[in-house]
Structures are given as C-alpha cells and as structure tokens.
Amino acid sequence: MPAMMEQLAWDLEADIVVLGCGAAGSATAIEGHDRGAEVVMLEKMSARHAGGNTRVSGGIWFDNVDPARAEVYLQSLCGRFKLPQPVIRAWARETARNSEWLEGLGAKIGRHANYTPEYPELDGSDCYGGYVGIGGQIGNALLFDFLQSAIRQRGIEILYETPGQELITDPESGRVIGVSATRNGKPFRVRARRGVVLATGGFENNRDMVRDYLGLANSPVWGSPAGTGDGHRMALKIGADLWHMDNMMAIVGVGTPDFPSAFATLGLVGEKGYVFVGLDGSRFVDENVQIRHGHALIHGRYELYPLQQAHVIFDERTRRAGPLVPQPEYMPVGWNLLVENYVWSDDNQTEIDKGWIVKSDTLSGLAAKLRIPGDRLEKTVALYNRYCAVGEDEQFGRAPATLIPLLKPPFYGFTSSPILAWSNGGPRRNENSQVLNAFGETIAGLYAAGTVSSTYSWCKDGGFHIADALAFGRIAGQHAAHPSP
C-alpha cells in the first residue's frame, strides 16, 4: 500500500461505496452485498427526500420479452448516435432479467395496463412487452420503497445528508480508493476497498450545465432537486470522458414560485381545446404531437421536444374539463404530489387564484398579461378556430378530433419553459458499468449507473430509464464485488 494511502485518515471503510440510493444505487448495493461485499451508501438528501427521480417517477420498467430483438430496438432508437455493441448487448441481456431479479428479492410483479411501444415502426420494437411494476401499479414510490426494504433487510448502511464531494485516488496507480464527503458539516472520508459507484442522478438542477450541455435557460425541474451534477463533476475531475450530454427528456408544464419542482400538465389530453404559442404569440407545432419520452416526430424525424419556451392558451370550457395536472388516482407521480403532498384542484381554480395560471376576460387582455406583442394572439386563436370549424389544421396537421375551438371566455394561459424531467448524459462507461477516460481506458475502481450515465444516446421508450438503472446498477454491484480488469 502506497505511503499516501497509509497516511489518509478514513472515517469509514467498506468494499463498495455507493453514492445515491435511487434505483441504480439500490440495485448496486443489493447485488454487491449478495455477492459477498460489504457495502455502504452515501445519500446527499435527508431520508424524507432521498431516492432521486426513482422516488417520484412511475417506478415501472419495460418488459423485455426478447433480448435479441431488444438489441435491434436499442440500435434503432439510437439513430445516428451509435452505442458500442458490448453496451447494447449488456443492456438487452440485463433489462430482460430485471423482473426475475426483483421477484428473487420477494417483490410481487405485475403488468400495468396495456402499453405498446412508442416507436412501433422501428425495427426490434416487437421486444417491447409493455409496463411491469411492483404489484402492477404505477407511482406512489412503490419501487423505491421496496428497494429500501430490501436494503434494510440486509443491514446495508445508508448515511443520509452525506453528499460526496470528491473522489480519492491512489497517487501512483490512479485507482479510485474512496470518497471525500461532508457529514454534519465536517469532512468525512470513506475508503472503498473494491470500488466506488456513482448513482448520483442527473444534472437537471445545475443551471450552468443545463445551459452549456442542453441549451436551455431557466428551465424548472419536474423531479427531485438533488440532481445537480455532483457525480459528473467528481468524475470529470479525475479524467472521465462524457457521452450524449445533449440528450434529455423535457415536458410541458407549470413552474411556480411555491415549490422547487414544477408540475407536468399531462392533463392536456382528451376533449380539451388549447394552443401552444411562441413568445411572439404564433403557433409553432402540432400541440397534440405524440411525445415519446422526450422526443416527437416533427417534419419527418425524431427531435427533442419540447425545446422552446411557449405559452399554453385555453378557455373556460377547458378550465372546467378537468385538472391540467393529473391527480393521484390517475397518475401518482411527481415531486410536488408525492413529497410536497400537493394535489391539483379538480377545476384548476385554486391554481388560478394562486396566480400560477393567468386569467383574462379577453384574449387581448391575456396577451398583455403574458407580454405577447400586439394583436398576434387574437389572430392566432382566430385562425386556429377557423381550422376547428372546417376540421383541418392547414398549418401543422393536428388531428381533426383534437381540434376543439377556444370560444368561451374567460381565457387562460401559463408559460412553459419547458420543464426538465431528467438529463441523460454523463461519465462514459462500458458494459461492466466501469467509467472510462478520454482514451477509452477504464478508471480503476470507478463505476456509474442510472441517470448519472444513462445508456440512451437518443430516443428512449417508456420504462427504459428504470430498466437501465436496475440493469447497470446490478452490473456495477456484480463487477465491483469481484473486480477484474
């Protein structure tokens, strides 16, 4: 052991040190423990707020019914942004084992509704068997709670409110040998005898990184406020390479001054009339375009969507047609619902009274409140209403069944920035979840799993993020428990 290592004062030691206790971190810890390693987990947040986006997501994963075809599907989804074949092969193999692994831990797995692939025309989509989850249910932190119970059963220690700050490396070999963290306001060093696993989530709450890598400014976040790019910065400091940092999932939604996270307006479906207009008051897209977990088919190709700030405009009929934000009986997901315990009102009136949604008796008055110039909004809505009357959207081809006019005042609007659900990119890793440097070499002792280093270079289907986190978390735990070159 080098002299430098001997001189370090360690506050705690374990075989594997896992940063983060979402799906990826939990899968790593459980698998590493069950393979004979001593594991400790460092979690940035308090116990009440821990778990990253896993805690507030749907918590479901896709049923991979054919690993060979899944390889083809992932290649198709990557499009021009190809992945290494060994990574694709590991992903296809291990995502097909997620349900069996969870059942082996004692979980009761069931199918959730009858979901089909979001990209049915792509080769390999026949591998997609729909959504599965704990008890066949979505949301309500069911997956997170189950994984936490499995961790407690194993006696794996989680140190909450202990954020990792820096990776400690052997000065001679460069191997990662531990983590420098903060605990109770003081430095806290944890030695990792076999490996450190980054499962720290994305960087969607880091405004500088969001601006530089995603090209967005002042975008509220839908999920956990914990994803500030901590793992990214720690890995970069010791020479890690990065991959697909420009990929993400964004959604249309309402940001408020009352909560750190925003609301996803998934309630803008069904028989509801609304338009999206740019900052100049003009329409720019088919508002009803299918959003496939961050992408939409626009002008014949899959593009990241939404990407620009827009005003969402609707009328009294739509206001009364139901909540813009799903309530728990429909979709129990989201930080504000599950952590802040805020339930959106049935008729949206409470949120209007709070000022989250702007109201005016006239379109011109609404335009003035939203700072839309001139009479542009009136002309835009008039043209849209004309399309509704004839049953054809000549501008953007919106489906005739969704062309519901905006005729009944008052009129309402809110500005979507858009809302960031999660980022995708991070430290480049291989099929063993080992982090790579800029020369494609493994950084010994360092692993990454989950949205800190998501597999997806471009398009992704429903349930893919949880599936990826579980799969590569397990891989990281397996490899770190018995490291090999």
Keywords:
4-stranded antiparallel sheet; 485 residues; alpha+beta; disordered N terminus; Flavocytochrome C3, Chain A, domain 1; FAD/NAD(P)-binding domain; 8-stranded mixed sheet; 2 domains
Give me the secondary-structure topology.
Layout: H1 3-7, E1 12-19, H2 23-34, E2 39-42, H3 52-56, E3 61-64, H4 67-78, H5 85-95, H6 98-104, E4 109-112, E5 128-134, H7 142-153, E6 157-159, E7 164-169, E8 176-183, E9 186-198, H8 207-214, H9 230-237, E10 242-243, E11 248-251, E12 253-254, E13 263-264, E14 274-277, E15 295-298, E16 301-304, E17 310-315, H10 316-320, H11 335-338, H12 349-353, E18 358-360, H13 363-370, H14 376-390, E19 411-416, E20 419-423, E21 426-427, E22 434-436, E23 442-448, H15 464-481
Parallel strand pairs: 1-2, 1-9, 2-6, 9-23
Antiparallel strand pairs: 3-5, 4-5, 7-8, 8-9, 10-21, 11-20, 12-13, 14-17, 15-16, 17-19, 18-19, 22-23
Helix pairs in contact: 2-7, 2-15, 4-5, 5-15
